[in-house]
Amino acid sequence: MESKRAVEGLRERPEAGSVGDSIQTGKQETAASYEVHAQVAAAQVSDILRVLLLFRFLNALCVRTFFQPDEYFQALEPAWNFAFGSDSGAWLTWEWQHQLRSSLHPAIFGLAYRAAESLMSSLSLFPPFKALMLVALPGTVQAVFAALGDFYTWKLAMDIYGRQSNAPWAALWMTVLNPWQWYCSTRTFSNSLETTLTIAALCYWPWEVLGDTKANRNQPLQQKGRVSSLRISLVLAAIAVLLRPTNILIWLVILGISVTRLTPLGNSTMEMSALIILFREIVICGAAVLAVSLLLDRLYFGFWTFPPYKWLYFNISQSLAVFYGRMPWHYYLLQGIPLLTTTFLPFTIVGLYKATFSSNTLQSKILNALNIATLTMIITLSLISHKEVRFIYPLLPILHILAAPYLAAFFTQPTSSSTPPSTSPVALRRKLTLANLLSLNLFLAGYLSLFHQSAPLSVLSFLRTDFERIHPDALDITTAPSSQQRGESDSKDKKELFALFLTPCHTTPWRSHLVYPALRARALTCEPPLHTAPETQEREAYLDESDRFYLEDAEGETYGVRFLSEEMWPQLTTGNDSSNRMDAAARGGEVPRYIVGFEGIEPVLRAFFEHDRGEKEAPGKGMGVTLTRVWSAWNGAFNEDWRRRGRLVVWDTGVYEGSHGAEELEKDGRVVDEL
User: In whole angstroms, what is the distance from residue 352 CA to residue 367 CA?
Assistant: First the structure.
C-alpha cells in the first residue's frame, strides 16, 4: 500500500474518508477497498499535470487585458532592470527605491529574460520577433506556476478526501473553471506565485501530526520520507512569507494547531522528539531561505537590506498603504470572497460552516485547521484600511477544497454502496443549473481576459511596432544609445520623446512591453508623500502628479490646462526662442511625437494647444502642435474610474516627420481604429 501511494504521488491518509460520499450515502468507504494499480495511478498524476500545463499555457495566451499595475511594476520592471541593467529604461517605483519588496520574485523573470535574450541573440533572430517573444515570456513562465497551483489543489484534496471520493475531482474542476483563476493565475502578481507556494506547502505539510496518536504506533515525523516532506513544506512557506509578509498568518495557525496537537494539551502521547524535529526543521529551513533572500537582495540592491522590515515600516508605521485607498471592514466578506469564488460561493459558505465543527477524524481536523487559517487571515486583513481582493488570493485553493465535497454532492448522483466509486461513471444531476453556472463562468472569464481594459496593452503594441518602423536602427534591446547612457539631452543620437502618457499613473505596463531602451516615453507619476508624517495636514493635502493633472481648476477652466502650462511645458509656453526650448527639453519638457490618453482629455489638449479662450490665447499655441488621431481602441463596457472611461487614443502632435500614416490621415481623415 505504501509503495503504491508513493508512486501515485499521494501520501497515505489512513483516517481520511470520503466526505463527498459520506454526504451522499451516509457511509464512508475505505481507500483500501478500491485500490488502483500503482502504474495506473502514476500515469493519471502525470497526465493531469501535463493537461494543466497545456491549459494554463493557453490561458496565458488568452489574457490580453490590463488588471492592476503591480502585475508589471512589482515584478516585470525590476526583472527587466535585473536582466538588462540600469540603462534599459525600466521604471522602478518608489517601493524598489526604498527596498520594500524582495528581489526573489522579479529574479525569476529576470533570469528568464536574460536566458531568452541570450538564446535569441545567438540565433541572430530579427529584433521585432525578439521583442514579441520577450513580451510573451513572463506569461509563459507564470503559466507553469499556475498549473502547479491547480495540480497541488487537486493533490491535497485527494490526500484529504481519498481516491474513492468525487470531491478531489470537483476541486480540480472548480480551480480550472473559476473565472478569477483564469483572469489572474497567469498574471505576474506576487500574489499569484504566493498562492501556488501556499497550496504546495500545505500539500507537503505532515498533517498526520493532527491525528490520534493513541491509535497509531508510528510517530508521524519519524516515518520514512516525512522529514523530507516537512522540509519542502517549510521552504515553500518561508518563500511565500518573504514574498508577502501577510502570508505568515496562515502558517501561524497551522503551526499553532500542529504544536498544540504534539503537546499534552492536544491529548497527544507522542514523545518530545516530534516537537524537537519540528522546531529543528523550522529553524534550519527558515534560516536557509532567509540567507538566500538576504544574499539575493544584497546582489540586487547593492547593499544589505531586509525588505519585510521595510514593508512593515512604510505600510504600518508610516501608514502609506492608505494612500492607495481605504475599504470598509466588511470588504473581504461582501466583495473579496464573492469575487474569488463567483458561482461557487454557496458551496464555499457551506464548506466553511461545516469545517467549523471538528470531529475526531484526521480528515475533519485537517479541514478545521484550513478553515481556521482562512478565517484568521480574513479577519486580520479586515482590520487594515487598504484592502484588495488579491491580498486574500492565497486562500482560494483552500476555499475550493472546503467547498468541493458539497459541490460534488449537489451535482452528482449518490453512488451505490455495492459499486466501487473508482470504477462507476459519474452520473450528473441538476444539469441545467450546472450548465448555467459554467456558462456564466466562461462568459466572465472570456470578457475579462479578452475585452475589459485591453487597450492599455494594445496601445503599447502600436507604439512599439511604430517605433520599429520609424527607427529601425535603434532596436538594440540590451544596449541603450550612447547619448542616453551619458545623459546628453542635445545629442543627435538621442531619439525624440516618442510618447507622453497623460493618463492616471501606471495605466499601462512599461518597459516589459515597450522593450527598446531607445523608445523614450514619459507618464504621469503618483509617488506617495514619503516626506510627510502620518495624520498631518500636509499629508492630507498632498496631491501627486496625476492628481494635479486631473484637478478641477478653481477659476472654472478645463482641468489639465494649468498643469500642462505650469508643470509639463512651463518654458515652451512662455516663449519660442531656442534657449527656452533647450532648457525645457533638458528638464523633460520636450514635445513628444505621440500623446496617449483617454478620449475625455481631448478637449483639454485642444484647449491647451489650439483653441483660444476669449481674450486668452491657448497657452501652447506657439508650440506648433497640430493634434491628429492616429489610433484608438475600445477599453471595455464599464470602468469605475471616470478618468479611464471611453476609448484610449493616440494623438500625433505633428512636430516630427514620419509619424504613423500622418499624410494619409490628413488626406481622408481616417483614424486607425481597433476594437
Answer: 9
